[in-house]
């Protein structure tokens, strides 16, 4: 009897202490979810380390699970056990999570910092706020890199070099999904750039793209993780391959490999934060405080010191400086630099939201043939 | 009879020795030629060199040691001229293989290990059997050995760079080991593994040993079904256990956090430790049950006869005798938890990430040789643990041999 009473009293005290803490404090632990690699370490250096300097005692744990963020958040939600505080996802995943109610809607005016000149966050991010839950961080592009020592005297200048196995013999690395590959295939099969998505809507157009891809199918190594193509290029196993431009920057400038960028027909995409729905008040308070800091103009510009992705705020662009370790100017390595952006695509969220399942099925069936 | 013994001493040179050694030369030449980029030239050249060596060594150099060293040295020099230090090592290796083979075939040594009455077919079969065994060993061990030098790579890729192949010190570095010991992510993972694995092991050993002793009593009802259930985590595909555990432990964790007010990180550790303990229990049960088979029941009866209660009997009589089984079960449980990636990915959150979790994530998102450095360290630890298991097994056999009855 006595033991039971003591136990109950202790439990009650602990609970009371816990709730008292919540009233006066924000949670001191945060689990951030990101992609690992150079990208995550740029976030660590540009956002987390300065934040921890201002807020000593805040403990940050990284989880490199952005790749399966949608599936994991669904499971966590079903189990009623959200262990993540802030999740880095691509824009299309953010749209899905927002639609399913797994991500929290944000108010740009209240939750995000205004630009130093007073421009509101909503105007500063502009069109990049593609979903009510999405807080954009960077503009990145998916583009090709090629081995400079394996292309002879005529380095490729057009994305169609990928489909030209006679001029550029050797294996190519392509992502194991239809997105981007279908667009490039149509573009190189004579479809005008502005008609690409109109053609891709029709079954005939989809077959046309697959037929074009079929001409190089024997020469393709399919990749699924961003680190694959850099490794294949470094090994000389492929002559060219698509991947994220920041990964290629790392291979070329930081690892000093004989690789060059082929910016032609690069596809822009956005990456940013979402806050999972269902956080406790103290955790939410901490996350909101962090996000406001981590997405302000200076922080986004700082990230470009470590990796060649363009900051999502217009006001950050003039602040982009030099690489933190190599001391080279970062502006010419940004996908948005005018010299690199002569021929670009913007990831078509509406189209792929509508057609992704169908085209995915067709693409996988074609792959298995 | 005399004809046979002559044959045994001197195998037929032109009809047997030259083609066989030439055949090996052909294979080695083809492999070397592939490295250089001229497989066909290598193939022809290898066959010719093999055949010539077979005749020269067996006919003109009766001193086996001298002949072999001459060939090894010669090949090493040729290799050095073509490919630097790495080429010299490769050349010496090929020289060692081909000269050993030439003498082995040419002197009939290959018949030494088989009875004299074996036919050609039987001799061939016996030697190919040995060869297949050797090949299996090579296939098992090579992937592990390849990892070791790559972990000293000076570049950030899983690639044998030209510098590495030339054995140039520039191509090697300890930076991936430094990375492992200096990165917070890896250190957190190491710390978590070192916290989770021992505690999970202690739980599995205690519960598993008790279960094994209970299940070895003949009067316990439903022994077989209980045994089957306890062993099931080892049999059920891990991904299925993991999915189930995810939902089960989420509810448990919510209760501990919400109703008992425990901290999030403590609850996370409890969940992973319990899940790993469940995975380790079958190993303990199996090893302890196996040890109990050799345990003499009359000893417990003797102890009871002299007034010892069951607990004293267990700790003073039974436990010391089954200790080797308990310890080797514990080591298996430890390795299970230390190597486990699926369940921890489901049940744990990032604050509990273990070494395998960090390696798995790293392999997918960032192919960095730091993973290989960690793998090398883990291989060394695993070899140490398995060596311990083997020593304990021998001790247990020795003890059993000495025990009465």
From TrEMBL, chain A:
Gene3D superfamilies: Periplasmic binding protein-like II. Keywords: Signal. It comes from the Bacteria. Residues 1-22 form the signal peptide. Pfam families: SBP_bac_8. PANTHER family: ABC TRANSPORTER SUBSTRATE-BINDING PROTEIN (PTHR30222:SF2), SPERMIDINE/PUTRESCINE-BINDING PERIPLASMIC PROTEIN (PTHR30222). This is Putative spermidine/putrescine transport system substrate-binding protein. It comes from Pseudooceanicola nitratireducens.
UniProtKB/TrEMBL annotation, chain B:
Residues 190-389 form the ABC transmembrane type-1 domain. Gene3D superfamilies: MetI-like. GO terms for biological process: transmembrane transport. It is a multi-pass membrane protein. Coiled coil: none annotated. It comes from the Bacteria. Keywords: Cell inner membrane, Cell membrane, Membrane, Transmembrane, Transmembrane helix, Transport. The chain crosses the membrane at residues 12-31, 37-58, 65-82, 126-152, 194-215, 227-249, 269-295, 321-347, 367-392. One of its GO terms (cellular component) is plasma membrane. It holds the Pfam family BPD_transp_1. It is found in: Cell inner membrane; Cell membrane. CDD domains: TM_PBP2 (cd06261). PROSITE patterns: ABC_TM1. Belongs to the binding-protein-dependent transport system permease family. This is Putative spermidine/putrescine transport system permease protein. It comes from Pseudooceanicola nitratireducens.
């Amino acid at each position: 009897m006595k033991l039971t009473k003591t136990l109950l009293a202790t439990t009650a005290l602990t609970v009371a202490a816990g709730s008292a803490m919540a009233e006066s404090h924000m949670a001191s632990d945060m689990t951030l979810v990101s992609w690992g690699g150079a990208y995550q370490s740029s976030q660590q250096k540009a956002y987390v380390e300065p934040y921890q300097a201002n807020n000593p005692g805040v403990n940050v744990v990284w989880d490199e699970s952005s790749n399966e963020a949608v599936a994991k958040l669904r499971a966590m939600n079903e189990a009623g056990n959200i262990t993540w505080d802030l999740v880095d996802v691509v824009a299309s995943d953010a749209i899905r999570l927002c639609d399913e109610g797994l991500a929290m809607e944000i108010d740009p005016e209240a939750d995000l910092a205004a630009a130093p000149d007073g421009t509101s966050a909503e105007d500063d991010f502009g069109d990049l706020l593609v979903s009510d839950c999405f807080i954009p961080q960077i503009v990145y592009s998916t583009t090709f890199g090629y081995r400079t020592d394996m292309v002879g005297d005529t380095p490729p200048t057009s994305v169609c070099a990928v489909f030209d196995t006679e001029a550029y013999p050797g294996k190519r690395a392509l992502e194991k999904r239809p997105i981007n590959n279908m667009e490039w295939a149509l573009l190189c099969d004579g479809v005008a750039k502005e008609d690409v998505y109109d053609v891709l809507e029709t079954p005939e157009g989809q077959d046309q793209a697959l037929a074009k891809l079929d001409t190089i199918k024997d020469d393709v190594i399919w990749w699924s993780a961003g680190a694959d193509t850099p490794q294949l290029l470094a090994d000389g196993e492929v002559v060219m391959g698509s991947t994220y431009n920041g990964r290629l920057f790392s291979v070329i400038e930081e690892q000093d490999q004989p690789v060059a960028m082929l910016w032609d027909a690069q596809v822009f995409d956005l990456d940013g934060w979402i806050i999972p729905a269902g956080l406790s008040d103290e955790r939410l308070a901490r996350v909101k405080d962090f996000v406001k800091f981590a997405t302000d103009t200076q922080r986004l510009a700082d990230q470009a010191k470590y990796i060649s992705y363009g900051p999502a705020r217009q006001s950050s662009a003039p602040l982009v400086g030099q690489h933190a370790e190599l001391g080279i100017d970062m502006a010419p390595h940004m996908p948005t630099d005018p010299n690199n952006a002569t021929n670009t695509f913007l990831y078509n969220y509406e189209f792929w939201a509508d057609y992704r399942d169908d085209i995915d099925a067709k693409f996988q069936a074609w792959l298995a043939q | 009879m005399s004809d046979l013994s002559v044959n045994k001493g001197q195998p037929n040179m032109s009809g047997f020795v030259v083609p066989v050694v030439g055949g090996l030369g052909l294979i080695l030449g083809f492999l070397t030629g592939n490295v250089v980029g001229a497989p066909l030239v290598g193939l022809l050249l290898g066959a010719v060199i093999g055949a010539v060596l077979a005749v020269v060594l067996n006919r003109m150099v009766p001193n086996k040691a001298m002949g072999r060293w001459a060939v090894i040295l010669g090949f090493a020099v040729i290799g050095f001229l073509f490919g630097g230090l790495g080429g010299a090592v490769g050349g010496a290796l090929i020289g060692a293989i081909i000269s050993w083979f030439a003498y082995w075939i040419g002197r009939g040594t290959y018949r030494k290990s088989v009875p004299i009455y074996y036919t050609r077919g039987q001799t061939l079969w016996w030697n190919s059997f040995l060869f297949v065994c050797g090949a299996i060993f090579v296939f098992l061990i090579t992937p592990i050995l390849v990892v070791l030098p790559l972990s000293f790579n000076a570049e950030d890729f899983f690639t044998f760079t030209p510098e590495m192949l030339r054995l140039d010190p520039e191509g090697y570095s300890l930076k991936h080991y430094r990375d492992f010991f200096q990165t917070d992510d890896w250190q957190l993972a190491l710390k978590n593994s070192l916290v989770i694995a021992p505690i999970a092991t202690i739980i599995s050993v205690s519960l598993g040993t008790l279960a094994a002793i209970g299940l070895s009593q003949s009067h316990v009802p439903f022994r077989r079904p209980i045994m089957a259930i306890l062993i099931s985590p080892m049999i059920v595909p891990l991904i299925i256990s993991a999915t189930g555990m995810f939902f089960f432990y989420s509810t448990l964790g919510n209760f501990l956090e919400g109703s008992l007010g425990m901290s999030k990180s403590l609850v996370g550790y409890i969940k992973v430790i319990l899940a790993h303990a469940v995975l380790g229990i079958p190993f303990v049960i199996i090893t302890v049950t196996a040890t109990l088979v050799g345990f003499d029941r009359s000893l417990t009866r003797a102890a009871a006869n002299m007034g010892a209660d069951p607990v004293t009997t267990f700790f003073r009589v039974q436990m010391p005798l089954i200790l080797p089984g308990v310890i080797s079960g514990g080591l298996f449980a430890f390795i299970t938890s230390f190597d486990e990636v699926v369940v921890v990915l489901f049940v744990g959150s990032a604050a509990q990430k273990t070494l395998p979790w960090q390696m798995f994530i790293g392999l997918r998102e960032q192919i960095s040789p730091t993973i290989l450095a960690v793998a090398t360290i883990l291989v060394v630890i695993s070899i140490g643990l398995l060596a311990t298991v083997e020593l304990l097994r021998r001790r247990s056999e020795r003890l059993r041999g000495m025990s009465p009855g």
